[in-house]
TrEMBL record:
InterPro entries: EF-hand-dom_pair (IPR011992), EF_hand_dom (IPR002048), EH_dom (IPR000261)
Top-level division of the source organism's lineage: Eukaryota
Domain (EH): residue spans on this chain: 5-95
Pfam families: EH (PF12763)
CDD domains: EH (cd00052)
A GO CC annotation given for this chain: plasma membrane
The protein, known as: EF-hand domain-containing protein
Amino acid sequence: MAGPYADQLEACFRKADLDGDSRISGAEAVAFFQGSNLPKPVVAQIWMHADQNKIGFLGRPEFYNALRLVTVAQGKRDLTPNIVKAALYGPTAAEKKNCCFTD
C-alpha cells in the first residue's frame, strides 16, 4: 500500500485486527466500526460490499474498501451501486485521510 495515508490505513487495520491474525473477522469489524456512529444496517451493507468474496473475513484491501465506504456513509450518502463503485474504484478512492474513528 503506497500513498500519503498508507501509515494511517495500516494503523487502522492493526487496531481493528484484535487477534493479530492479519484479517478482520465480522466480530472485529463490528467492534471497530461501531466507532463510526453509523446505524447497524449501514455497517452491515458496508460489510456486504467489502467482503466481496463472501469468506467472512477482510484482508487489508477489503478493509481499506470498507473504510472508504464508511467515509461515504458518514457523509450522509446512500450506498447506491454507483456510489459504491465510485468510492471503491474511482480516481479519488486512494485519497482518504485519517480513517481511525475509535478511541
